[in-house]
Specification:
Length: 320
């Protein structure tokens, strides 16, 4: 393989830059040319690319966001769009593509491979919602950012003897809420994977802890459950405790990536290029049983995401 492309797609995640850096440097030092593709599949459709050299990826490992920019492309998500992107690859001499993104981006890569352009994917999203991988690049940074934000909320919540209902991101996945909830000592953690009863799981629990002397409360709600403003009203009405709702939002996507995200992204980037170099494609680099390995994209996409119910139950036991 003489020339590869690299793109980031879907929501940006801290650590994507470390992955791009590893891809570019591994390919260049293996004798390949590398094209950086701007704004994901959308940029590929319009041929928005630039030649990368060893210095193109200098001083990016510590930056959040993605130097390649990112997008969610409607046009690419059609058979004509995929064909157009494959034709563009052939026109630009791109013989393989490393795609960094979530499950949606993997589907795009599977289709591009089907259209004759070999692809390898790296899971990059703050949601940790890629079924085939125990870990996605960006998750650790987002968790730590959210913990920092909720710690700040706790200061003011405590000072006013209030309750704070905080929504964290995660799309339909409760991992971010679960781990952040444990780390901030939330009294209640609501995730889409576990149904809840308003009276029993929130009000009774708050009132029980109130009797033991607790005066302020943090409730962490996953984005997939949502409705934090309404929930805050209902809690205030039922308990008489002043309650505020906070949606952390996109701050969770920014910031300098943690050591873990930089290291995982670097290893994945290296392995992605080595797979393409050895002629393998339609693969996704994943973490399984703590190791960075690769799987077939189609198999990976068919997997179901497990939720760590055991950890959720532990959280309930200790945050009381
Ligand atoms: O996938 C990352 C994510 O931040 C999700 O947590 C969230 O649901 C979504 O992207 C937000 O998307 P947008 O950036 O388009 O508002």
């Amino acid at each position: 393989m003489k020339k590869i492309g690299v793109l980031t797609s879907g929501g940006d995640a801290p650590g994507m830059n470390a992955a791009v850096r590893a891809v570019a440097r591994t390919a260049l030092t293996s004798g390949m040319e590398v094209l950086g593709i701007r704004r994901g599949y959308q940029g590929l459709l319009s041929g928005d690319v630039f030649e990368m050299d060893l210095r193109s990826v200098s001083d990016i490992i510590h930056h959040g966001g993605t130097m390649l920019y990112t997008a969610r492309s409607k046009e690419y998500n059609t058979p004509e769009g995929v064909q157009k992107a494959a034709d563009m690859c052939r026109k630009l001499g791109i013989e393989g593509v490393v795609v960094i993104g979530g499950d949606g981006s993997f589907r795009g890569a599977r289709d591009l491979t089907g259209a004759g352009i070999p692809c390898v994917c790296i899971p990059g999203t703050i949601d940790n919602d890629v079924a085939s991988s125990e870990y996605t690049v960006g998750f650790d940074t987002a968790m730590n950012t959210a913990v920092d934000m909720v710690d700040r909320l706790r200061d003011t919540t405590e000072s006013h003897d209030r309750c704070s209902v905080v929504e964290v991101m995660g799309r339909r996945c409760g991992d971010l809420a679960l781990l952040v909830g444990i780390a901030v000592g939330a009294t209640v953690i609501l995730v889409p994977e576990v149904p809840f009863d308003f009276q029993k799981d929130i009000i009774d629990r708050m009132q029980f802890t109130q009797k033991t002397g607790k005066k302020h409360f943090i409730i962490v709600v996953a984005e997939g459950v949502g409705g934090v403003t309404e929930l805050a009203h209902k809690i205030e009405e039922s308990t008489g405790i002043e309650t505020r709702a906070t949606v952390l939002g996109h701050v969770q996507r920014g910031g300098s990536p943690t050591l873990r995200d930089r290291v995982v992204a670097s290893e994945m980037g290296y392995k992605a290029v080595k797979l393409l170099e050895s002629g393998r494609s339609n693969r996704v680099i994943v973490v399984r049983e703590g190791k960075v390995v690769d799987l077939d994209i189609t198999e990976a996409l068919a997997m179901k995401r497990p939720f760590n119910k055991e950890l959720y139950d532990i959280a309930l036991k200790i945050s009381i």
